[in-house]
Amino acid sequence: MAEDKESAEAIVSEVHKKIRAAFDVFDHEFNKTVDVREIGTIIRSLGCFPNEGELHDAIAEIEEEEPTGYIRFEKFLPTMTKVLMERKFRPIPEDLMLQAFEVLDKQKKGHLELEELTKYMTQEGEPFTQEEMEEMLSAAMDPDKNLIFYKDFVSMMTVDDPR
Amino acid sequence: MGCGFAKSDQLKKRDRETSLLVPAATAMRAALLIQRWYRQYVARLEMRRRCTWNIFQSIEYAGEQDQIKLYNFFGYLMDHFTPASSERNLISHIFRENNICHNVDWERYFCYKSIEVPELYSGPHLSFPITCSNAAELVEAFKNKQQLHSRYVLQLLGETWRLLRILPNISQISTCHNKEITICGDLHGHLEDLLLVFYKNGLPSSEKPYVFNGDFVDRGKDSLEILLILFSFLLVYPNDVHLNRGNHEDHIVNLRYGFTKEVLGKYRLHGKKILKLLQKIFSWLPLATVIDHKVLVLHGGISDTTDLHLISRVDRHKYVSALRPPKRKRQNRSGMTDSDLEDDDPTAKSVDSSRRRVHSLTHSSSTGTRHEVQRRSLQGLNNRVTCSVEEELKERRRQAGLSQSYGDLRNSLTNSDSDPDPDSGELLESYGDEWKQIVDMLWSDPMPQDGCVPNEVRGGGCYWGPDVTEEVLRRHNLTLLIRSHECKQEGYEFCHNRRVLTIFSASNYYEVGSNRGAYIRMGPDLVPHFIQYQANRATRALTLRQSVGRTERSALRALREKLFAHKSDLISSFQEYDPENTGLISLGHWAGAMEAVLRLGLPWRVLRSQLVGDTLDGMLDYHLWFRELAITEPNTELSNASLLETMYKHHSNLETIFRIIDTDNSGLISFEEFRQTWKLLSSHLQTEISDEAISDLAVSIDFNKDGSIDINEFMEAFRLVGGDLLQNEGDPH
After folding, report:
1. Where do the EF-hand domain residues begin and end (chain A) (predicted)?
2. Which residues of B are the active-site residues?
3. What is the DSSP letter of B381?
4. Per-residue confidence at B723, pLDDT binned at 50, 70, 90?
5. Helix A150-159 / helix A94-104 crossing angle, nearest 10 deg
6. What share of chain A is helix, strand, coil (3-state, %, to 5)?
7. Which of A49, A106, A129 is the closest to B1 by Cβ?
8. Interface test with B, best of A26, A29, A38, A41 (most B CBs within 10 A)
9. How many other C-beta atoms are found inside a 10 Å radius of the C-beta of residue A49?
10. pLDDT tens digits, B208-245
11. Chain B: nearest CA to A1, how far in angstroms?
């Protein structure tokens, strides 16, 4: 039992170090604070897949009583530890991603038109900004045909992930 | 990122309302999923990009710091070895001003008339006084990869020198008549970027004034072409083109960062002369520009002691290299020499990420201590001085507020090209202050916290805070400070409540796709407008993922080389965590060891996934890991592995020393000089490199040039071949 406790502590300690490392990358003033606008990037870089709403909630929990625009590490650490230990915001498996695209591809063409995808991404769910849309298209779209071959896109993005 | 919050009841509401061909609920959910997934991806890319940036910056600044440490070491040698010592002789010439001191002699030296331009020459021809169409022709010629004949180069440099000498230290310009001024930052030999700026913005003219804010040379491969273009426009439009000196307009820095090599490579016959003239020209470059008495433009930055009035009165040309300490005196009478001159103490005050390093130049020469005299020969007073010498000297004494003997000042200001001044009295405090002012202007960086501390990362200048900005701006009645010196991802960046603006004009600086370049347009309202660009056509077509990936691979390659260079130190450090010699250490210990040895202040845990492959239960087999880094050893048959490692680790220093020793800039040094280089290096590193090891080294290198070594060939032998592609020729790293 003692061993279990020890290994549990070791795990938590590792998690803390991971969180600290990611936080430090954005701590430009070396004073254990980061700009609140970078929190999303930090949380996601630690392997979590929150949607915007969940992110917003998490930030609300971490922020000061009176928001300063900065997040302190002392407040970030416990929340983030819980997120990682509880495996909240789990990754989306590749096959589920494919299904999502297939759903939008109602005619089962194997690809999506530029307008189709743009419409969905910028009008549905938690819409993309124009910048986000353009960036996704630059990565996903075949520029000659203006088509998105989503199967390739999904594999490419998943392969890219150096876990 | 501008989106709604998708709470579940909102979802249900929209489900009812929308009527897509795809069942609404499903489309919604699919879209949400895709958005969530894609945003996660972008965040991870951003993290990688940030880390990559850190890597490049750390390595860059560590290199600069290294350079300064080396230079400090030479200074130490100069002060502590007897005049007859051979090491001192090897390097003493870099501490000496040019032997040519009279303007008349310089005119002769600059003489180009004996150089004939052959019929076959197909490059541009220049005639003087140079016209704007000539300058435009030059731009076209360089765009077409032509080279300017050395005769014209020398002629152009001569004219430039004559003009620069009459310019003040701080140029005052105005935006009257609704002229918009264009301000460019670091170019670093990236001709493509300069051409792009001219393409987008137009060539310099009286309607289109420009300020170029230093660091025109080094790292990129067309530094000389950039200089020639800038100088020719300067000559055509002397009131509308302004050049500020950067920390790379410095022959000592050029030895290490590629400009010296570039010139010698392009101009085999006259390269040496060209370099010498450029040394002079750099020292004559103005230090700053002020626009409408409100906007200060200079290369590096400021410090809490920055005083523009003082700066406007210095003899800027005395500071041939900003790395050179001010004139020092030998205390003959008491026979003292300064023994604690060098605070070269590499204490790593380990903050979480140890970013503190060696003391800066600024703090190494304190006033009030005695130093050895420097052999100097100064150029005569410049022609611009209309009053008599005595009056000039009186004025300087008065302004300096010192009671110096007339003799002192006279000695320092008049022509004297021979022996050191004996017994010339006290240390001239004014020179110490002046020197600090100049170093600060060329080397400092802003920091977010208040205060002003030595810039230990680079090794020169300060880190200055927002309070210092406010104070200095207020003191001089200014509203904005524009500076360069630091690469910025978007080409520009504000800080200190938008009172400091960094502008950087070399796109793709670290690697293709690493950053954009930018320039400023500013009109009478003094509001800066930015135009950004990226030179390489290919990069614009790169997706975020591709450009991050490419830059990252490059950074990791640079980092792996560093790892290789520190291999034995790293292994020893790992072994400390592995007392039972299992060959395994935890990843936590790995991260700790990496930082302790390399001291780059990098986020090792975050980088881990890029550097370390598989682990067994979170334990790393470090010997295996080194083998897997897939760095092939350098291409020499040296059996002495530790010598090899030392050589590789310090190859930049080695190259710098070679080039210093190579006084005639021929690219060749003798075997004896080679041996001396090693002794110097081993002395600097405080390690032992036996004569035998050096002889072995010599044997394994093919001396096929009458017992002399070609520096370039020798350094080439130490280029590492990684698992990835070989780096390109002309790649600054």
Report:
1. 14-49, 92-127
2. 248
3. P
4. very low
5. 160
6. 60, 5, 30
7. A129
8. A41
9. 19
10. 999 999 999 999 999 999 999 999 999 999 999 999 99
11. 21
Q: Kindly state the tokens that stand for B325.
A: 């300490």
- Which residues on adjacent β-strands are paired with residue B445? B463
SS3 state of residue B212:
strand
**Residue reference for tokens 């969940």:** A54
The three-state DSSP-derived secondary structure of A74-143 is HHHHHHHHHHHHCCCCCCCCHHHHHHHHHHHCCCCCCCEEHHHHHHHHHHCCCCCCHHHHHHHHHHHEEC
What is the C-alpha separation between B711 and B666, in angstroms, rounded? 9
Contact between residue B576 and residue B330 where contact means Cβ atoms under 8 Å apart = no
ipTM given for this complex: 0.92
Q: For residue B644, which of B583, B608, B697 has the smallest C-alpha distance?
A: B697
Residue B361 makes CB contacts below 8 A (sequence gap 6+) with: B68, B72, B323, B325, B439, B443, B459, B460, B461
- Mean pLDDT over B165-187 rounds to 92
pLDDT for B305 beyond 90: yes
Q: How far apart are CA B198 and CA B205, in angstroms?
A: 11
Q: How many CA atoms lie within 13 A of A24 on its CB side?
A: 19
Q: Which two tokens stand for residue B280?
A: 């002079």
CB-based burial, B599-613: b 16+ in 10 Å, e otherwise: bbbbbbbbbbebbbe
**Cα–Cα distance between B294 and B683 in angstroms, integer?**
49
| Token pair for B127 | 């005639």
Cβ contacts of A49 on chain B, cutoff 8 Å: 36-37, 40
pLDDT band at residue B562 using 50, 70 and 90 as cut-offs: confident
Per the CB < 8 Å rule, is B32 touching A104?
no
Q: Do B32 and A125 touch (CB under 8 A)?
A: yes
**How far is C-alpha B533 from the chain's CA centre?**
22
